[in-house]
Automatic annotation (TrEMBL):
Upper lineage: Eukaryota, Metazoa, Chordata, Craniata, Vertebrata
Name recorded for this polypeptide: Interleukin-6 receptor subunit beta-like isoform X2
Membrane as UniProt keyword: yes
Family matches, as CDD domains: FN3 (cd00063)
Sequence intervals crossing the membrane: 442-462
Gene3D superfamilies, per database record: Immunoglobulins (2.60.40.10)
InterPro entries: ECM_Regulatory_Proteins, FN3_dom, FN3_sf, Ig-like_fold
PROSITE patterns: FN3 (PS50853)
Cross-referenced SUPFAM superfamilies: Fibronectin type III (SSF49265)
UniProtKB keywords: Membrane, Repeat, Transmembrane, Transmembrane helix
Domain of life: Eukaryota
Length: 585
């Protein structure tokens, strides 16, 4: 480092005769800078610079003496030094903004005043003043003064949404109203509360009004149309009313969000969810959270419909929070999905009851449930993992899952893994073996086989009956016949008695009948024969007593024998002889 001494040498362009008059506003100088090294004692001179006093004189710094604000303007008063001031200007900006707004040059004097118009109500502004002599340089800006404009009437109506919550068991209907807080530019002041009015359209005299400081209201309604109006108010007055006509007899198909989960990063809570896009176009999501010990102090956050992850600010340690997420579609809203969490553990839910729901040859269905608990670690997410690459995330609104396209008769392992910032851990596991054949597959094979056997059996029985009837007719066995046993009895002997059967007295002849039927009995005590007409002809039968009837066996039942008609020349029949032959006696 070179140590140098420097001198400023200046001389007046014109001669002067009075020393104090050397420096005045009209003076002009030539400035030369002389430098000298302390070590080498070498001197150097700079170039000559012309210098006008009027160019370097600066006006004194003004002082703001008073500030008065209305809802849209600020009146500023300031003073300058005794030196005459020709003009001033004011700069101002809203709090927490970077850019300043400057006014045009203002004609000023020793004490001046100016009113800044068109400011935002209930807003904080910083302002300062700078002045000018008419020559030289502008003064430095005065010290900044902070002022706040007053409140005015809210300028905009609320953004209102609703949904109808119906309890099928009790039949109670609740109308849930949600609205969005006004922007600062629209609120124009501190919102003190909200006024909610509702009345049945058919009975306007039943109008009811409630006041609340929250952004949600729940009222009991009946199944009819209602007219609802909501407005915000501050110390200056009310905002314009937002009116809706609500049909409380029907609900709208705005589904709730799904896969809701909360995790902690140590200093704040992060909430995330999923939404299944349907015909309903979701415009935004409303998030509500409050401490479990202080349900009256609720906080809200609104995000657009394409955002699915939000950081919740203002989370305190050792506090449990109840969090709800509402889908919003214009004037319609959906039911909330709720979850509890704290800063230490994240979501206060734990999967339990992990087990098998169903198994087949190509799929496995698993089930589990959730219970409120404080996990030992902060879980970022849970995943259901099948042996191999197949894995899915599981959330409190999901309690079962099926893995498809598996191999038959194969062993698989399924795990529930928890993911933390430090690594993963296994919450539960299960070993499963798929079936060789499914019940449906067995039925597909068994039913046709049983039907085929049944058809074959029926065909066999029918074919056997038909074949026996036409190809193998039944031949009568004489051993089971009275006549046959009588004829086959070798001990029977003939007698000389001629037995004549007079057919004319026994048969009722019918000219159209082709056959006659008579009964042959081996009993000696004959009883009169009776006749009966059947569909096939005339039958002769002998009545018997109850004892005789019960004592008959199948072989002793009367037999009906078909005989051809006997011609008139038949004569008589003698035992053991052929008709026409005479007895030797």
């Amino acid at each position: 480092m070179i140590n140098m001494l420097m001198w400023f040498l200046y001389c007046r362009v014109q001669d002067f005769i009075y020393c104090p008059a050397i420096l005045n506003i009209y003076s002009t100088f030539n400035l030369t800078i002389k430098s000298k090294s302390v070590i080498s004692q070498k001197e150097q001179f700079s170039d000559i610079y012309p210098l006008n006093i009027t160019d370097i004189i600066q006006a004194p710094r003004p002082l703001i003496t008073s500030v008065n604000a209305t809802d849209s303007s600020i009146s500023v008063t300031w003073t300058s030094a005794t030196t005459p001031i020709t003009k001033c200007k004011i700069r101002y900006k809203r709090l927490n903004t970077e850019s300043w707004t400057e006014t045009a040059d203002l004609v000023s004097s020793v004490e001046s005043q100016f009113v800044i118009e068109g400011l935002q109500s209930f807003s904080v502004f910083d302002l300062s003043v700078s002045c000018f002599h008419g020559f030289g340089r502008w003064s430095d800006w005065s010290e900044e003064t902070r002022v706040k404009t007053t409140e005015s009437l809210p300028s905009a109506a609320l953004s209102l949404s609703y949904y109808v919550d119906s309890d099928e068991n009790s039949g109670i209907r609740r109308l849930v109203l949600l609205w969005k807080a006004l922007d600062v530019t629209d609120a124009r002041g501190l919102i003190r509360g909200y006024e909610v009015s509702y009345k049945p359209i058919t009975q306007p005299s039943l109008k009811k009004t409630i006041h609340t400081s929250h952004l949600k209201a729940v009222v009991l309604v009946r199944s009819e149309e209602y007219e609802v109006s909501v407005c915000a108010y501050n110390s200056a007055g009310r905002s314009p009313d937002r009116r809706l006509t609500v049909d409380a007899s029907r609900t709208h198909d705005v589904p709730a969000v799904r896969s809701l989960w909360v995790y902690s990063d140590g200093s704040s809570l992060w909430i995330r969810w999923e939404y299944e896009f349907t015909a309903v176009n979701i415009s935004e999501f409303a998030i509500e959270w409050s401490s479990a010990t202080d349900g009256e102090h609720r906080r809200w956050e609104r995000v657009d419909g394409s955002t699915f992850t939000v950081r919740l600010p203002g989370i305190e340690a050792q506090q449990t929070y109840n969090i709800s997420v509402f889908p919003i579609c214009g004037s319609l809203a959906g039911p909330p999905n709720n979850i509890s969490a704290d800063l230490q553990h994240g979501a206060l839910l734990d999967p339990v009851g992990f087990g098998l729901l169903n198994v087949s040859s190509s799929s496995v269905a698993l089930r589990w449930s959730w219970k409120e608990a404080k996990p030992g670690v902060c879980v970022l997410q849970y995943r259901l993992v099948l042996t191999g690459p197949d894995q899915i995330q599981i959330f409190p609104d999901k309690q079962q899952h099926s893995f498809l396209y598996l191999h038959p008769n194969t062993k698989y392992s399924v795990h529930i893994h928890g993911e933390t910032r430090d690594g993963n851990f296994t919450k539960a596991s299960l070993d499963i073996t798929t079936l060789l054949l499914d019940y449906e597959e067995m039925m597909r094979f068994a039913v046709p086989a049983v039907l085929l056997l049944l058809i074959f059996g029926i065909f066999s029985v029918l074919s056997r009956t038909v074949c026996r009837e036409y190809l193998f007719p039944i031949i009568a066995n004489p051993r089971y016949s009275l006549i046959g046993r009588w004829l086959l009895n070798p001990h029977l002997q003939g007698s000389d008695k001629i037995c004549v059967l007079k057919l004319d007295g026994l048969f009722l002849m019918d000219q159209q009948m082709e056959k006659s039927v008579f009964v042959v009995s081996d009993h000696e005590d004959e009883v009169p024969l009776k006749t009966s007409e059947t569909a096939e002809g005339t039958a002769l039968w002998k009545p018997c007593s109850d004892d005789e009837e019960s004592a008959l066996t199948p072989s002793s039942l009367p037999e009906y024998v078909d005989l051809p008609f006997l011609p008139d020349s038949s004569g008589y029949v003698q035992t053991g002889q052929i008709p026409g032959e005479r007895n030797s006696d």
